[in-house]
């Protein structure tokens, strides 16, 4: 749905020659794709990847239950991490939009720091440094917290861009009615800003979800970690990675679909305005 | 009696600069209770800025602005409280885009005046009825026409029981066929005795509704008179030229 509208924005509708050209290249691309797929399957066959021992354990319920448990942990870590990232991001955004110069500088520094440092370094920090301080978080928090910290700066910037996109007139109207700055932020500005940035926030949720695959480092039993256990148990790397990749793709695809839906719905409400 | 009465809005020697531009030059004016004052003038004359200084949406460099005899507070709750007593209608309506029309009207009464929600809703519906958009109460602003939005915006300001209303070019963003419906709401408001300060380009409306017309140009008040006197016999050359340009169209 979103694709269509982007295409509408970028190109004029094709004429007869362009239509012919599009048909030709679509056909060519299909042929090339089919050839590629055939090549992959052939390589699988040649190297014996279709052998029963690589696939038979997928017929067992226990395999799926094991992967399912991992998936639940993955989702739990991603959702918890995102929730924490949202709260931290919100606070940083508020800090960065303050008049107080020190608060603003500290928030900006934290945003740049969390955005600039790779997630993996935060994970190693929680894995290697944090336990030495005497605080020993569980494996779940050792993956969830670094993922949240790594995402919070991006969330803060996304929220801030949303706040900046709210027209000045909305603030002026609220001020003219006697709302204080705090009240008007929560009642008028933020609800609108939040709507603007829902797609960016969901995109960040996908990134957090992918970051949780580092959980094997802290031996948290997420989907990836459990996949690795299967791999070593059955000595079946390719088949397991393939299945797990499909699961990740399906979940992230679903999230992106939800995001598109929401974006479309919000745009429609706006479009009704321009029609009127 | 009207001689000794404190004006609702009073500006004394107000000055304001935008960088090098002296947008308000020693402006003084007063609006008495129940009076309708219309400010006209070419674009860039400072009339909108003047209107916006009254509830401190624009700050001033020097001079004094008094509301019911009290200076406009600089900040904080006192300023918010003062703003709640002065209604404002904007050129671009500025209805809250994410709320229904009804919620637009009840937000400030509930939040600022602490009126119970149910009471605020009943009052809001009455106001919407009065401006003729009660049937749109459940819709969001984007679903309404410009004229309907502006009438709802007027109702939103009225929901605060303002002592005076400021109109900053309320019809300039409207399609021609919708201007009339907004002006008639304003005319009715004027006839009910509302104190109003109106910045507008609608000369016929000004003539019909105003108790007093103020002509501004280059950041200064050039002329101030009754509408009939002003439109029939403008004293200054600049006002004569301005009226001539407008009539030629």
Give a verbal description of the structure:
- The complex is a heterodimer of chains A (276) and B (249).
- Chain A has helices spanning 2-10, 16-46, 52-55, 61-96, 101-116, 119-129, 139-165, 168-176, 181-211, 223-234, 237-275.
- By secondary structure, chain A is mainly alpha-helical.
- Chain A has one domain (54-275): MetI-like fold (Orthogonal Bundle), CATH 1.10.3720.10.
- In chain A, α4 crosses α7 (139-165), α4 (61-96) runs antiparallel to α9 and α5 crosses α7.
- The longest helix of chain A has 39 residues, at 237-275.
- Chain A starts with a helix and ends with a helix.
- By secondary structure, chain B is α/β, with parallel strands linked by helices.
- Chain B has helices spanning 47-53, 76-85, 101-111, 117-131, 146-158, 176-191, 203-209, 227-232, 237-248; strands at 9-18, 21-31, 36-40, 62-67, 70-71, 86-89, 164-168, 195-199, 212-217, 220-225.
- In chain B, the strands form 2 sheets. In chain B, strands 6-7-8-3-9-10 form a 6-stranded mixed sheet, sandwiched between helices. In chain B, strands 2-1-4-5 form a 4-stranded antiparallel sheet, with helices on one face.
- In chain B, α3 (101-111) crosses α4 (117-131), α4 packs across α5 (146-158) and α5 runs parallel beside α6 (176-191).
- Chain A binds chain B through residues 167, 169-170, 172-180, 183, 187-188, 191-192, 195, 269-270, 272-274, 276, and chain B through 55, 57, 76-77, 80-88, 90, 92, 94-98, 107-108, 111-112, 140-145, 153, 156-157, 160.
Outline of the structure:
The complex is a heterodimer of chains A (276) and B (249). By secondary structure, chain A is mainly alpha-helical.
Secondary-structure topology with pairs:
The complex is a heterodimer of chains A (276) and B (249).
Chain A: H1 2-10, H2 16-46, H3 52-55, H4 61-96, H5 101-116, H6 119-129, H7 139-165, H8 168-176, H9 181-211, H10 223-234, H11 237-275
Chain B: E1 9-18, E2 21-31, E3 36-40, H1 47-53, E4 62-67, E5 70-71, H2 76-85, E6 86-89, H3 101-111, H4 117-131, H5 146-158, E7 164-168, H6 176-191, E8 195-199, H7 203-209, E9 212-217, E10 220-225, H8 227-232, H9 237-248
Parallel strand pairs in B: 3-8, 3-9, 6-7, 7-8
Antiparallel strand pairs in B: 1-2, 1-4, 4-5, 9-10
Helix pairs in contact in B: 3-4, 3-5, 4-5, 5-6
